[in-house]
Design a protein that fits this description.
- The chain is of the alpha/beta class.
- The chain folds into two domains: 2-202, Rossmann fold (3-Layer(aba) Sandwich); 204-436, NAD(P)-binding Rossmann-like Domain (Rossmann fold).
- The chain contains 17 helices and 14 strands.
- The protein has helices at residues 10-21, 33-40, 51-61, 97-109, 126-141, 161-166, 179-193, 204-227, 229-235, 239-247, 268-281, 287-310, 336-345, 358-361, 375-379, 399-405, 420-425, and strands at residues 2-6, 25-29, 64-67, 79-82, 115-118, 149-151, 171-174, 199-202, 316-320, 349-353, 370-371, 384-387, 410-413, 429-431.
- The protein has a six-stranded parallel beta sheet with strand order 3-2-1-4-5-6, with helices on both faces. It has a six-stranded parallel beta sheet with strand order 11-10-9-12-13-14. It has a two-stranded parallel sheet with strand order 7-8.
- Helix 7 links the parallel strand 7 and strand 8.
- The chain binds nicotinamide-adenine-dinucleotide.
- Nicotinamide-adenine-dinucleotide is lined by residues 6-12, 29-32, 35, 83-86, 98, 101-102, 120-121, 154, 156, 158, 266-267.
Length: 436
């Protein structure tokens, strides 16, 4: 099947490369000329494991091409995906400007019936608005075309995006009374459903809500365990043991029960807040989601306050990890964006190390910090190390060597990666979250 994917960011580019890998003919479209030039050369504009290889393979096969000109690609496509960003807008509502721009552009340039698919995370009712916009453009053009709008939310995780796209837990498709659109979506995803992955069809409105509900639920699990960390600290309990004891219950499960400085990234913070904004519009209480958001902000602040209070004056501080999570260069809502300016403001010297996110981080961080080539280079003569992102390479660090490299001995583990005893037996003083 020939398809277009508009917006070649974290979601669109991975989707485009994976659809090409599955045998479809795919055209990636973006307004960002530099991004498209890189894609055409087979260079991934983002750090995402496995993506560049897939990109090059797709280009070599002739099934994956890129353009900045939407008008030249629609004529042969049966399905057009929109995967543009939906960042927080006024009152934390999802900003749908890019979605509507793309919707209208597709209606403007379409010359045959096609299915328009919203892959972006959009509030319930957006599909209907897109359909109205398409109808208005077609009317103005004086043409009669069938362009149904389908919701197909994306659940990939950055850092695991290729595997998540090729082998998803489920594919959710929201279609309203349009058997033709449903059949096309079934055909499109057959290479994945053929190997046993489920595709679930539902109304467009339900599919739109599934995405926000899923993210809010996962964020709630994180905030729930984080909510307990102050209690475990004050009572001498250990949050890891609490999570272990809870998570072995099949009904609860162990995932997303890892205590730390809370969630960040391009999705959970904005989607939690956007769900609250949608609920407010409909005058529906969203108490649990509100608490999730509040706890997340408080958790980050609580840890950062502990760090800032514990540091000596004009300390040298090594920050390990800048990205909001490992295996990505995405800096959106990363805790480092809060902590590092606070450290600089308190007149500490900040040295940072991140294996992938330095280039995306630089424009967002204060100028007067030092970027280092390794965790040890950052820790050289440091009073304290603060771990903010749990990159795998931090797990096996030689702790004795670290102690010798530093001039001080404070180790702040924002992700509870280390065993406190192990750190202490290396002569370092340990502070994690929710444990002694
Ligand atoms: N990043 C994730 O992990 C993730 C996971 C699931 C869902 N989502 C959702 O997917 C959507 C996209 O997120 P993302 O992280 O890929 O965003 P992104 O910012 O990485 O990518 C969006 C891309 O769209 C392009 N774009 C903007 N306007 C355009 C236009 N008019 N025409 C063509 N291209 C245009 C931008 O240049 C950019 O390359 C969002 O709604 C997000 O909430 C993201």
């Amino acid at each position: 099947m020939k398809i277009a994917v508009i917006g070649t960011g974290y979601v669109g580019l991975v989707s485009a490369a994976c659809f090409a890998e599955l045998g479809h003919e795919v055209i990636g479209v973006d307004i960002d000329k530099a991004k498209i030039a890189k894609c055409k050369r087979g260079e991934s504009p983002i750090f995402e494991p496995g993506l560049e290889e897939l990109l090059q393979k797709g280009i070599r096969s002739g099934r994956l091409t890129f353009t900045t000109d939407l008008s030249e690609v629609l004529s042969e496509c049966s399905v057009v995906f929109s995967a543009v960003a939906t960042p927080p807008g006024e009152g934390h509502k999802a900003d749908l400007k890019a979605v509507f721009t793309v919707t209208e552009a597709v209606a403007q340039h379409a010359d045959h019936d096609l299915v328009f698919v919203n892959k972006s995370t959009v509030p319930v009712g957006t599909g209907k608005k897109c359909e109205e916009k398409i109808a208005a453009v077609l009317k103005k053009r004086g043409v009669e075309l069938k362009i149904p709008v389908v919701s197909n939310p994306e659940f990939l995780r950055e850092g695991m995006a290729v595997n998540d796209t090729l082998m998803p837990d489920r594919i959710v498709v929201g279609v309203n009374e349009d058997p033709w659109a449903r059949e096309l979506m079934e055909d499109l995803y057959r290479p994945i459903t053929r190997v046993g992955k489920p595709i679930v069809f539902m109304s467009r409105e339900s599919a739109e809500i599934v995405k926000y509900a899923s993210n809010a639920f996962l964020a709630t699990k994180i905030s729930f365990i984080n909510m307990l960390t102050e209690l475990t600290e004050k009572t001498g309990a250990n949050i890891r043991d609490v999570a272990l004891g809870m998570g072995l219950d099949d009904r609860i499960g162990p995932r997303f029960l890892h205590a730390g400085i809370g969630y960040g990234g391009s999705c959970f913070p904005k989607d939690v807040k956007a769900l609250m904004a949608t609920a407010k519009e409909y005058d529906v209480p969203m108490d649990i989601v509100e608490a999730t958001d509040r706890i997340n902000a408080a958790q980050r602040k609580r840890f950062f306050t502990q760090v800032l209070n514990a540091l000596p004056k004009k300390a040298i501080v090594a920050v390990w990890g800048l990205a909001f999570k490992p295996k990505t260069d995405d800096m959106r809502e990363a805790p480092s964006l809060d902590l590092i300016p606070a450290l600089v403001k308190a007149e500490h010297t900040v040295r940072v190390y991140d294996p992938a996110a330095v280039e995306t981080a630089k424009p967002l961080l204060p100028d007067d910090i030092e970027y280092c080539e390794s965790p040890f280079a950052a820790a050289e003569d440091a009073d304290a190390v603060i771990l903010l992102t749990e990159w795998d390479e931090f797990r096996g660090v030689d702790l004795k060597k670290l102690k010798e490299t530093m001039r001080g001995s404070d180790f702040f583990d924002g992700r509870n990666v280390y065993d406190p005893q192990e750190i202490r037996s290396a002569g370092l003083s340990y502070r994690g979250i929710g444990l002694k």
